[in-house]
Write a structure and sequence with these properties.
CATH superfamily: Tetratricopeptide repeat domain
Largest sheet: none
CATH topology: Serine Threonine Protein Phosphatase 5, Tetratricopeptide repeat
Strand content: under 5%
Structural class: mainly alpha
Radius of gyration: 20 Å
Order of helices and strands: HHHHHHHHHH
Number of strands: 0
Distance between the termini: 75 Å
Helix content: over 70%
Number of helices: 10
């Protein structure tokens, strides 16, 4: 009788675990599917909040915190209201720190977001903040490349930075083009570690390269 009860409880626990796993996977997939269109639909904050809620429910998983940090850093980078950028960037830092704590280390993807966070801080006042944040932007991009040479996202971020940097300061469209092309080459061969792992940015590369035609 005790054995039957034990097996029943074990089976019920397995069913509950699978149900929770399915719910997590469905929620993650639904929001990941919206990443590439969120700039057009202007729903970055909404998607970021969705990932934050998933992270609060799944505190042992790093990816929800990572995506919440990515969305929040992008919101800070692209926002019009400079008075909100530092708070958003700090919020993104908190998410990424939690992701790295779960991982037990930083990785190429979290380094990319940390470069984005530094960019967001700098855009508040580029002239006065470049000396503070410029090095962090570049250092995190280089760390991301070194951690995973197959990752196209550090090259995409570097290319975007160069694209919008005046030629007088070492940037410009011509300087950015080889980096966009490198990113495109890497995207064509990139294999995410899991179906939920980061794979964003390919459409952004295609958009920028279309500006050269």
């Amino acid at each position: 009788m005790k054995r039957i009860l034990f097996l029943t409880l074990l089976l019920a626990g397995g069913i509950f675990t699978n149900a929770q796993s399915d719910k997590y996977t469905k929620a993650m997939n639904a929001n990941i599917a919206m990443l590439d269109s969120m700039m057009i639909k202007n729903n970055i904050a909404e998607i970021g909040n969705n990932f934050a809620r998933i992270a609060d429910a799944e505190k042992d998983k790093w990816l929800p915190y990572y995506y919440a940090g990515y969305c929040t850093s992008l919101q800070a980078m692209t926002g019009k209201d400079n008075s909100k950028k530092d708070d958003l960037a700090n919020k993104a830092t908190d998410f990424i720190s939690k992701a790295e704590n779960i991982l037990g280390k930083e990785n190429s993807e979290t380094d990319v977001v940390k470069s984005m966070i530094a960019t967001a801080h700098m855009t508040v006042d580029p002239q006065s903040r470049y000396m503070t944040y410029g090095a962090a932007i570049n250092e995190n991009i280089e760390k991301a490349k070194k951690a995973d040479p197959s990752n196209p996202r550090p090259y995409l971020l570097e290319a975007e930075n160069k694209f919008y940097t005046p030629e007088a300061f070492g940037g410009g469209k011509s300087v950015a083009k080889p980096l966009f092309e490198k990113a495109k080459e890497l995207y064509e061969n990139f294999k995410p570690e899991t179906p939920l792992s980061p794979n964003w940015g390919k459409s952004t590369v295609e958009y920028f390269l279309s500006q050269y035609k």
